[in-house]
Write a structure and sequence with these properties.
There is one protein chain. The protein has 212 residues and is of the alpha+beta class. The chain is built from seven helices and four strands, in the order ααααβαβαββα. A four-stranded mixed beta sheet has the order 2-1-3-4. α5 links the parallel β1 and β2. The longest helix is centred in the N-terminal third of the chain and has 34 residues. It starts with a helix and ends in an 8-residue tail after the last helix.
């Protein structure tokens, strides 16, 4: 019984070894077929050379450490935007006939930095389709230009901004409201108001509009 079982075990071992050998040959054949070198002599050595030349098995080249850069000098190629070494401040002289800027020329007058002085205001509330309001439009434009810096001229269309009519308690248009520099209402008028009447009212309210 022992000799028979031993012989059976040996056969199993040989079969396993044979199967493993066949599998190894099959795998090697597939690899060689994929590389197209199975039928060529010396395929193994050529395959190794191909691997080396294609970069898969290339040796890593030795890299020498970079040389230290000189202080104040940018190595070429490091910054394409700088084409010359940094050598400290450059004294660039102004072109002939052009005076260099000085602190005196760049100084701003104190008057320009001071906050704007509040001005009296003429507020006209009307509409762009109202006939007397249309007659008022060129008068307001003239006053806005001629008396800039003396009093402000503001127009509000109450048909387009109905909330403004409620805010200023407007019932008839056009309505003109005169305010002092602090925003206090001084006088209001309803209907058409000529340029001469507006200027006379400002003089009556103590605003210097001159003899213009």
């Amino acid at each position: 019984m022992t000799s028979k079982s031993d012989s059976v075990n040996e056969r199993k071992v040989f079969l396993r070894v044979g199967v493993l050998a066949l599998l190894a040959l099959a795998v090697a054949g597939v690899v060689y077929l994929r590389q197209g070198t199975l039928s060529q002599p010396g395929a193994a050595s050529e395959a190794l050379e191909d691997l080396t030349t294609t970069g898969i098995a290339q040796p890593v080249p030795s890299i020498s450490p970079p040389e230290p850069a000189l202080a104040g000098v940018v190595p070429p190629g490091d910054d394409p935007g700088i084409a010359e070494p940094i050598a400290g401040p450059v004294d660039r002289a102004a072109p002939e006939g052009v005076e260099p800027a000085t602190e005196e020329r760049l100084s701003v007058p104190e008057e320009a930095l001071a906050p704007a002085k509040p001005l009296p205001k003429l507020l006209d509330l009307g509409a762009d389709k109202c006939i007397p309001c249309k007659q008022m439009a060129p008068i307001l434009d003239e006053l806005r230009v001629e008396y800039a810096g003396v009093f402000e001229v503001v127009f509000i269309d109450v048909w387009k901004n109905s909330s403004e009519a409620d805010k200023y308690r407007i019932r008839i248009i056009p309505t003109q409201i005169f305010y002092d520099a602090s925003g206090k209402e001084l006088f209001r008028h309803t209907g058409f108001y000529s340029k001469e009447q507006i200027l006379a009212k400002w003089r009556e309210l103590g605003v210097d509009v001159g003899g213009r």
